[in-house]
Write a structure and sequence with these properties.
single chain; about 325 residues; alpha/beta; Alpha-Beta Plaits; six-stranded mixed beta sheet; four-stranded antiparallel beta sheet; 11 helices; 13 strands; disordered N terminus; binds adenosine-5'-triphosphate; ATP-binding; ABC_transporter-like_ATP-bd; AAA+_ATPase; nucleotide-binding; transport
């Protein structure tokens, strides 16, 4: 796949408004709240991860943001307007999790159909379709019927459809569920390419490692409420987890490390090798850790800052019965 050129050529309403803004958004099904006072803020050009357990209300939220489901209460603005407005809708892209394809169409026909619905002209589509097929790794396969595509190819084709009309905001619902590891990396690159073009991406994914790598900020939802939202660094309370690997732990080294940060885990299972996970208050603490190891006489083999671990945070939050509300 190539880095996409998908940014808005001419923004319909160039604006400083947020990509998504909701306040106390609610949806009741048969009197039961499934989205229950959801307040979100997603700036333009940001990749936003929307996380939560099954049934948390993620898809319902996305449907409301797309104007496909009517909210029961609260406010929402998408690209500064309402998603029911065709001028706003034309600037949105969407890859649903359960895509139903017209299997008798070829990939190109499918994209032409969606492009025409999005208001693109025939000559624009002639240039644009091969471009997006190339971007999603389907270059040269567009003339084949969708009925003969693999699951991964169909998901790539759906992604091509989502970015075809150069949207300013793209909703991707589990965009890599059918993809192999190479495909996942490629989709990550596409998302990064979208961000570089100033396109906002709203990403629903259960693959937390994927979200961790690509998202600027995330929100955790449970039972239709946001438990927490912020940048990865903010969510971790600003700490920098580091892993250090040494040949041995001389007496006193662990105490010194505990004065520099919080020792979270030690692994002394392997002879001739010790690993310590240390949470530092800031990155500036790293040289002092290296000095402490050196002064203790141990040999330092690795000192690796780690990105915050979303999975640990997710499980902590989701499993806490009365988790705090953002
Ligand atoms: N059309 C509907 N009618 C009645 N209940 C619905 C409807 N759509 C969703 N729900 C209910 O709303 C709740 C939230 O569903 P939703 O699909 O939004 O969750 P989700 O977070 O996307 O879940 P998953 O991760 O499993 O896809 C669920 O309990 C679901 O049964």
């Amino acid at each position: 796949m190539n880095t996409p050129q998908v940014g808005p050529q001419v923004a319909a309403q160039p604006s400083t408004s947020a990509a998504i803004e909701t306040r106390e958004l609610r949806k009741l099904y048969r009197g039961r709240p499934v989205v229950d006072g959801l307040s979100l803020h997603v700036p333009r050009g940001e990749v936003f991860g929307f996380l939560g357990p099954n049934g948390a209300g993620k898809s319902t939220t996305v449907k409301m943001l797309l104007g496909l489901v009517l909210p029961s209460g609260g406010e929402l603005r998408v690209l500064g307007g309402h998603p029911a407005d065709p001028r706003v809708r034309a600037r949105l892209g969407f890859l649903p999790e359960q895509f139903r394809f017209q299997t008798w169409m070829t990939g190109e026909e499918f994209l032409r159909f969606h492009g025409r619905l999005a208001g693109l002209k025939a000559d624009e589509l002639r240039a644009r379709i091969p471009q997006v097929l190339e971007t999603v790794g389907l270059g040269g396969r567009g003339s084949e019927p969708l009925g003969g595509y693999s699951k991964g190819m169909l998901q790539r084709c759906g992604l091509a459809g989502a970015i075809l009309a150069r949207p300013e905001l793209v909703f991707l619902d589990e965009p890599t569920s059918a993809l192999d590891p190479i495909g996942r990396v490629e989709v990550r690159e596409i998302i990064e390419g979208l961000r570089a073009e100033g396109v906002a991406v709203f990403l629903n994914s259960h693959l937390l490692s994927e979200v961790e790598q690509v998202c600027d900020r995330v929100a955790f939802v449970k039972a239709g409420r946001v438990l927490l939202q912020g940048s990865m660094r903010e969510l971790m309370g600003g700490v920098v987890p580091v892993v250090l690997r040494v040949d041995t732990l001389p007496p006193g080294l662990l105490d010194t490390l505990a004065r520099l940060g919080e020792v979270r885990h030690t692994d002394l299972q392997t002879p001739g090798r010790a690993e310590v996970e240390l949470w530092l208050a800031q990155e500036d603490g790293l040289p002092a850790v290296a000095d402490a190891v050196h002064q203790s006489g141990a040999r330092l083999y690795a000192l690796t800052p780690r990105r915050p671990d979303l999975e640990t945070l997710f499980l902590d939050l989701i499993e806490t019965p009365e988790a705090p509300r953002a």
